[in-house]
Amino acid sequence: MHNKVVFAAMKALNGLGYPALRFNFRGAGLSEGAHDQGRGEIEDAKAALDWLDAEFHLPIIFAGFSFGAATGLRAACPEKRVVALISLGTPVEVNERLYGYEFLASCVKPKLFISGTRDQYGPRAQLQRIFDAVPGPKQVVWIEGGDHFFEGKLDQVRAAIAAWAAKIG
Question: Mean pLDDT score of the chain, rounded to an integer?
Answer without folding.
Answer: 89
